């Protein structure tokens, strides 16, 4: 196979993640993947979640719960990296995995929006790992961080489960085509409503 036709490393990693859908350890793999993706792993857990849920629609919400638990716990690990071990991990994360300009922008947003910034990253296609580590670096209060992570990650993954339960085999096509747009619009409406209520208070 020539270099031109050899899959790039990220694609090979993607295919490896997807292969766990056919394994008896797929649920455990989903938990571990969701945990790791919240701080440094490049492939989002949605990939395996969708494959598992489409293969067993009756367990879609179980898979969503496993994915949520792994992601929130992984988010706490990312928070700890930023809070207590940033000097150690900064050379490995800032640049190779997290763009410095993105990281700087995120820390600025924390000063203005706090937990709402975490929710936006947890629910939408924005890289959640950037926000978990930045939350620790910024010393964001832990309870708002956890609450926003549960709401955002749970909302995202249970939305996947709901689409699979409703549409079955067509769910993959629907998610590929519309899911990111739906999450962005949903987050804008929810956060916009919250800010409006706060402004009127």
Which helices and strands occur, and which strands form pairs?
Blueprint (H helix, E strand, L loop, with lengths): L8 H11 L6 H12 L8 H10 L4 H25 L1 H8 L6 H14 L1 H9 L4 H10 L4 H26 L3 H30 L1
Helix pairs in contact: 2-4, 3-4, 3-9, 4-8, 4-9, 6-7, 6-8, 7-8, 7-9, 7-10, 9-10
**Gap from first CA to last CA:** 64 Å
Say how many strands there are: 0
Tell me the overall shape: globular
Structural class: mainly alpha
Order of helices and strands: HHHHHHHHHH
Q: Calculate the mean pLDDT score and round it.
A: 80
Tally of domains:
1
The largest sheet is:
none
Low-confidence stretches: 196-201
Q: Proportion of β residues?
A: under 5%
> Roughly how many Å is the radius of gyration?
17 Å
Portion of residues in helices?
over 70%
Count every helix, treating DSSP H or I runs of 4 or more residues as helices. 10
Structure description:
This protein has ten helices and no strands. By secondary structure, it is mostly helical. It has one domain. The chain is globular, with a radius of gyration of 17 Å. The C terminus is likely disordered.
Give a quick rundown of the structure.
This protein is 77% helix and 0% strand. It has 10 helices and no strands.
Name some characteristics of this structure.
201 residues, 0% strand, disordered C terminus
């Amino acid at each position: 196979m020539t270099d031109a036709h050899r899959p790039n490393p990220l694609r090979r990693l993607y295919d490896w993640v997807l292969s766990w859908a056919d394994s008896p350890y797929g649920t455990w793999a989903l938990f571990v993947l969701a945990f790791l993706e919240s701080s440094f792993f490049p492939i989002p857990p949605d990939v395996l979640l969708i494959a598992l849920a489409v293969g067993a629609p009756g367990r879609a919400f179980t898979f969503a719960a496993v994915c949520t638990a792994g992601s929130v716990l992984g988010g706490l690990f990312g928070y700890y990296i930023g809070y207590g071990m940033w000097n150690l991990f900064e050379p490995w994360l800032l640049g190779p995995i997290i763009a410095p300009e993105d990281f700087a922008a995120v820390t600025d947003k924390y000063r203005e929006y706090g937990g709402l910034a975490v929710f936006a990253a947890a629910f939408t296609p924005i890289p959640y790992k950037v926000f978990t580590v930045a939350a620790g670096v910024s010393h964001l209060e832990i309870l708002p961080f956890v609450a926003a992570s549960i709401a955002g990650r749970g909302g995202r993954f249970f939305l996947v489960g709901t689409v699979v339960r409703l549409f079955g085999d067509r769910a993959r096509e629907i998610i590929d085509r519309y899911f990111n747009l739906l999450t962005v619009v949903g987050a804008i409406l929810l956060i916009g409503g919250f800010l409006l209520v706060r402004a009127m208070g």
